[in-house]
Amino acid sequence: MKKIALLIFFASFAHEGVSQVWDSIGSCLPASLGVRRVWKIEDRLFASTSEVNANLFEFNLQNGWTQIISSSQPGQIWDMEYDSINNQAILLGKFEDLNSVICNSLAKFNLATGSVLPIGSGLSFPDEYAYSGKMINGEFYVSGRFCEVNGLDTIYNFMKINLQTESYQFVCGGNSGDLIRDFCVYNNDIYLIGSFLRNGTEFPLVKITPAGLDFSINGPYRGFGYSLRFFNNTLIVAGNIRDTMQNNYIVGSYDGINFSTLLKTNNSVRKLEVFKNELFISGSFDSVNCSGLIFPAKALVKYDGVSISDVNGGCTGINSSVWDLFSTEDTLYVAGNFTQAGSVQALNVARFVVPSSTGLQNENTSDGNVFSVYPNPTDGNFQISSRSNFESKVLVEIFDISGRKLKEFVSDLSAQVNLDLPNGVYFIKINESTKKLVVRK
Questions:
Q1: Which of 67, 143, 176, 368 has its CA 20 to 30 A from that of 185?
Q2: If 0-12 CB within 10 Å is exposed, 13-18 middle and 19+ buried, where does residue 302 land?
Q3: Residues in a beta bridge with 428
Q4: What are the tens digits of pLDDT across the range 9-20?
Q5: CA dist 340 → 16, 285, 293, 303, 337 (Å)
Q6: What domains are there in the chain, each with its CATH number?
Q7: What integer pLDDT is reported at residue 392 of this predicted model?
């Protein structure tokens, strides 16, 4: 039986090939309504569901997805930002309590202890909520829809928080009806995207200036903006945006002077993310119009600065949508409501891995020395080394004899590894090359 399992194991590697980069990581996540957001923080993978109980789950290779945070009241976690100074994650959303602690839409989650605490006295629930948070020049900024903060200050939907004193500060003026979904820094200015209604017109984008909010940077664009990113020296904006010609669902760019449209879709664009020097665009669409050419694309495409292309089949299923993207050095995490990613069965969360081209070959080829592990047998402490001069990091995967993945990490091709594994035979896979590892203590 072990020989059969080993043959299946290597056959799966051969079938995967260089182009097979989709991987399912969501089969055990209970999210019938989809996955709202996904994050990778300090080698830990988290996801929040669309069920209205502020559910946060964590993934590990041994146990799959485990719920770590919930709320007794209806609510959702919309964002999670890492505070490296205090080794904590800042949770933002629409909730009253998390793990029985009253937090009011903002909380700090200690990554070492798992404890949840409020940040100051927080926002008022349930009428107000926070959508997005970011560290900018050492200060933590928060956007969403809120007015009264701490019961004292009137702050219209965008503020900064001193994480040491937990004090809330006014940033800029606005209207109480504004809804700010996301923000970023471009040319030393802060840009906000969302819904800004002025004199009967809904604008998706504003720039913060000393004189107030600048709406002129919208150019021909109107509507509700969901996401913005800095790419190729331009600001890219997306959402339920239309232009003055009434073209809908636009992804547009702004270089500080001029506006241009990159593409249009037949439904909403939800999230933009830069990964491997390309702009990934996700949403609820199943077709894309680029420069007058229409081609099918399921909820996910990428833009290299010149043209649009499909992402290995995208994410499919009935009424499929990709609501969130989160990138690391070699992996793009994808979350939403879908049942398949490319040719891989994937329920609501998947990852798109782009392996580095190292020239590594399989162990049974003529060049068996492209990478090695020693000592082998090992007690769990061993060295991975390579004769290749390739300097980029690679994805290292550890499998057992049945082909079940036990661990994975991103590393240089020369690394000291310490694995707590029982005695047995394992396999190390780096791109298309595999090595057998014997653990003997």
A1: 176
A2: buried
A3: 398, 435
A4: 444 443 343 444
A5: 16, 15, 26, 22, 10
A6: 1-18+356-441 (2.60.40), 19-353 (2.130.10.10)
A7: 58
